[in-house]
Structures are given as structure tokens and as C-alpha cells.
Design goal:
Oligomer: single chain
Number of strands: 9
CATH class of the largest domain: Alpha Beta
Strand order of the largest sheet: 5-4-3-8-9
CATH superfamily of the largest domain: Glutaredoxin
Distance between the termini: 88 Å
Strand content: 15-25%
Largest sheet: 5 strands, mixed
Number of domains: 2
Helix content: 25-40%
Order of helices and strands: HHEEHEHHEHEHEEEEH
């Protein structure tokens, strides 16, 4: 009798152990793929400067952006003819992001005089972007609110980053692009509100 009880207990323990092993395997396999350099935690301003340094002075990474009419936007092509301020923001639901765009809007006379264009993108839809353009009366000759489907462009810039612990970091980006190269780049956990500095960077001509 005792042998039967011990045998059943041993079987039950083996099944429990097998279940735990299976659960651990499932949890590991269900985690998203993490880049090899995932030790970078984006925790401080110094971390963000490292992100910016990776693209500053280099050719603009590929961006897949859609206009409010769902046509493609080529920042690379636009930057051959004028300075382009590129903003990556977290969508209409981010009030601080809208504050940054409105601060840039106040510089419209200077943007027009210096032939500078602003391309601000998020993963909002073209329809949502058109609503924002209309609501805040953005001048379409100076401002474009662009859609970044599946955050492909944000990933290309390194602004969306899967961390080793399974979380995802999303950063705001402010850049100046001239002749296809990133003259200035700023990454942070909050929007860059010093828009006068952005204007100053965009006003100068990059030496290639």
C-alpha cells in the first residue's frame, strides 16, 4: 500500500516538474527578439545622447512615411532642396508632443523666410493627422504630419527599442536633415522644446 502511494506521489511530482519546465520554455520562447546590444537601457540623458550620436553626421536612415493623403513622403528628396526639421513624436494623444509642434508653428515666418520644412511623424493614421492639421491650422506648405505605419521609421532611427526585460522604450526625436545627411539629432524621453535651437541648426548649411 505504501509503495503504491509513494509511486503515485512520485508520478505526480514528475508531472508537476514537467509542467514547470514547459511553462519556463513557453515564457522564454514568447519573448520578442532583442538586439545583441540590448544592454543599452535609455535610462539617462547620456544614453539618449548615444542614440543621437549613432546617426548625427551620417546619411539619413530609410524612412517610410505617408502623407495625409496616404502618398509617400521622401525626406531624402526634400532635403536636397531645403533644410528639413524631422520630428518623431508619440501621436496626438501626447499633449507635450503637440506643444512642441505648436511651438514650431509660432516660428512659421522664420521657417518660410529660411525655406525650412517640418516633417513630424508618428504612428497616427493619415486621417488622424489631417484632423490635427485642420484643428491647429498648420500651414501645409511648411508642415507635414506624417504616418509611420508599424513604427518602421521609428525603428529605423533607433527611437523604438525592445529592452532585454521585455519592455519597449519609445523616444522622441528631433533632427535637422540637409542634403540627405543628419546635421543634428536629439533623442530624449520628452520632446525637445528648445525649438529656437532647431531653427538655428536648420538655418545653417551643412559642410559635406
Amino acid at each position: 500500500m505504501l509503495k503504491q502511494v509513494l509511486k503515485r506521489l512520485g508520478t505526480a511530482m514528475a508531472l508537476v516538474a514537467l509542467g514547470l519546465v514547459s511553462l519556463i520554455y513557453f515564457m522564454k520562447s514568447s519573448k520578442p527578439d532583442v538586439p545583441a546590444n540590448a544592454s543599452h537601457k535609455h535610462a539617462t540623458s547620456e544614453d539618449h545622447k548615444e542614440c543621437a550620436a549613432k546617426i548625427a553626421g551620417k546619411e539619413l536612415p530609410p524612412l517610410s512615411l505617408r502623407n495625409t493623403d496616404n502618398t509617400a513622403i521622401s525626406v531624402m528628396a526634400l532635403s536636397q532642396e531645403q533644410s528639413v526639421i524631422v520630428i518623431r513624436y508619440l501621436g496626438y494623444g501626447c499633449s507635450h508632443c503637440i506643444e512642441q509642434l505648436l511651438a514650431l508653428q509660432k516660428l512659421s515666418p522664420a521657417l518660410k523666410e529660411k525655406h525650412i520644412r517640418v516633417i513630424a511623424f508618428s504612428d497616427d493614421t493619415p486621417e488622424q493627422n489631417q484632423t490635427v492639421m485642420t484643428k491647429y491650422n498648420f500651414d501645409p506648405t511648411l508642415f507635414t504630419l506624417a504616418s509611420d505605419p508599424a513604427k518602421a521609421s521609428a525603428y529605423s532611427l533607433g527611437a523604438v527599442y525592445p529592452e532585454a526585460d521585455g519592455t519597449t522604450t519609445e523616444l522622441h526625436v528631433s533632427m535637422v536633415v540637409q542634403r540627405g545627411r543628419v546635421k543634428f539629432a536629439h533623442f530624449d524621453s520628452k520632446p525637445m522644446m528648445d525649438v529656437q535651437s532647431l531653427l538655428a541648426q536648420a538655418s545653417g548649411i551643412v559642410q559635406l
